[in-house]
Amino acid sequence: MTSILLAQRFAATTTLAGASALLGIALAQAQTASPGTANSGATALQTLVVQGGGAIEGAEGVVETDGYVAKSGRTATKTDTPVAETPQSMSTVSRKQLEDRKPQNLSEAVSYTPGVRIGQYGAEPRFDAFKVRGIDLTYTGIFRDGLRQISSPNGLFRLEPYGVEAISILRGPAASIYGASSSGGIVDIISKRPTEEQFREVEMQYGSYGRMQGAFDVSGPLDPENTVLYRITGLARDARSEISAIKDDRLFIAPAFTWQPDEGTKFTLLGEYMDSTTGGTWGYINNYGPAGSIGATPVYGGDARFNDFDQEQARIGYELEHELSDNVTLYHKLRFSDLSTQQEWVFADFPGMVKEDNSGVASDNYLKTDFETGALDHQLITGIDYSYMKYKSLQGSGPDLFTDSFTYVPELTYKETQRQNSVGIYAQDQIEFGAWRLMAGLRHDWLNSEFTTDSSAGFSHYSRDDSETTGRIGLGYVTPWNVMPYVSYGTSFVANPGVILSTGGVSEQAEPTIGEQYEVGVKYALPDHNALITASAFNIDQENASVYETSSGVNLLRQLDMRSRGFELEASASLDNGLSLIAAYSYNDVKITKLTAETVGNQLNSTPYHTFSLWADYEFQSGTLEGLGMGAGVRYLGSSFGDNQHTPVLDNEARTFVDASLRYDLGKLNPSMDGVRLQVNATNLLDEVKQICTTGFCYFDEGRKVVGSLRYRF
């Protein structure tokens, strides 16, 4: 069992182991003021606008954006709350950002968001692995349309950005309304939904490493009364990566339908099917020779003859909103998901295979009740949610049997299964008293897990029941100048079923991971401009996180306590003169408080103290250059340590990446080509590639990548 896990571990290399000033200049150059703000001091939401081709910004009631600027959303509170009045730090990657930057995966999509650390495994193609505030969200922080995204150890849903309307990142604990989730926060992926405006587009892409892709997106009403709406989004791709043995192929289809028989009822059906293939082995041969030569070599660790990581995923679900009365609204969501993977891997001529299937159900049901008690206005939600997950994993590895006519397939000699049920009840009250904004929530969860292993070493069965109460409270004050200072406190927990620790010869499932956060911050919605500036300082204490530790020279599963402190600054704007920008700075001090004796007090590996990013986009509004748009971005990643022991030769140098975009609407040149847009996007334009080490194993940054696209909206 141990040899299989270690071989798999290394075969996969690791499964996961100045903004304000710039904004001030931009505002000074704005030609026309944006819509105003409420004279009561509370930020007024701007209405949604319709861009060329009928693309609506955001999904009404779920997330609303104006260009790059988030206006309101449900991710933080499950109610339609203005972002500028939410007493917790959050960011939104809008549809316009996604269209301007053309990210190819979830990690790239959130790369300009404060507090987010991507790239710790180089250009890892298999999983969207990233941290928020120094805490891994890969397994426990990804949500889809407000529901937990079911995952298993080797089965995580892959994201197709073309099927996404927006991405909301809530930093800090949200267990009081979402249950078991990361203390670093959650990333809520909002699916594209049907629109009342007729919308049609097709797009072709060609890019680096032989990338060829075609996509379409069509939406609109099926009847004159807009009672039934539809949307179908699809994509096909044939591509490789900078390592020729790694594919990036994909077939994707996402149908959606909305039925709204009256003003108080909306039923939306959301589906997805995707068949994708990438590389089963990621990483390079590492040299563990003399102290000065430890690190990655340019030799790829896998083999193209046995390297496919095939994954089929599907989900089908619905959302119901129904007004029971003038003051009470029912919200009901349910989604079924299914995922099947087969991963072939090779590392240092040692092959293996993992076949894993998981399926699950996630459901959330709550009532929102609006009422008054004297001078207090309440939005009370009371709810119950349920999730169920099961998975089966078959694993095997073999000896060094590689020849020029390699045909070996490892025997799958190890099996593990897991079933997990979770039920939670919760209540949250949002109270307005003049300019005061109070948010308070409480939740209790019950989790049950059954976990089995079966191998040549024998059969083992583990079961565990966990029960936990979590809460959150936040208080803000909206001044007449649209500045809202706030304070908040929240707790979180995540069960660790299936994570088996051996202590003193006794094996048992790991204790749940628990966390708490204190946060203070300020949000400023600039009057008469479509711009938002936020700043926050935080302290997170987390206990019993399950991690692999290499201090003994072997990957051992341990539980980690840590303290994450830091400061974040973010600015976003989309102005009437055609300028849009997002800027972010983060300082993050993540100290190990319990792991091994030699690591206590050290900064967590691959976690830089300083990160900074700036993306600016300008579109000419008139004159001979009307229709031309250009964008440029810089991402700075500070130095960090390559392992928790701070081995000097593994230290990661600071690095800076430059991205760029250029586009032109041909309809401005010739009216007969209205709706046609040419665009070129580049990431890491200057080809900055350095070694990056995480948990003692080293990789390389992804090099320059260029993608050209031709889009037609009609």
Automatic annotation (TrEMBL):
Q: What's the chief localization of this chain?
A: membrane
Q: Which domain of life is it from?
A: Bacteria
Name of the protein: Ferrichrysobactin receptor
Q: Where is this region: Disordered?
A: 73-105
Q: Which family does it belong to?
A: Belongs to the TonB-dependent receptor family.
Per the record, the gene is fct
| Recorded topology in the membrane | Multi-pass membrane protein
Q: Which residues form the signal peptide?
A: 1-30
> From start to end residue, where is composition biased (Polar residues)?
74-95
Q: What positions does the domain TonB-dependent receptor plug occupy? A: 83-186
Organism of derivation: Sinorhizobium americanum
Q: Where is this protein localized, as stated in its record?
A: Cell outer membrane
Cited CDD domains = ligand_gated_channel (cd01347)
Q: Which GO terms describe its biological process?
A: siderophore transport
Q: Which UniProt keywords apply?
A: Cell outer membrane, Ion transport, Iron, Iron transport, Membrane, Plasmid, Receptor, Signal, TonB box, Transmembrane, Transmembrane beta strand, Transport
Q: Where is the TonB-dependent receptor-like beta-barrel domain?
A: 258-685
Say if the entry is tagged with keyword Ion transport: yes
Q: Which GO terms describe its cellular component?
A: cell outer membrane
Has UniProt tagged this entry with the keyword Signal? yes
What GO molecular function terms would the record report?
A: siderophore uptake transmembrane transporter activity; signaling receptor activity
Against Pfam families, the record matches this protein to:
Plug (PF07715), TonB_dep_Rec_b-barrel (PF00593)
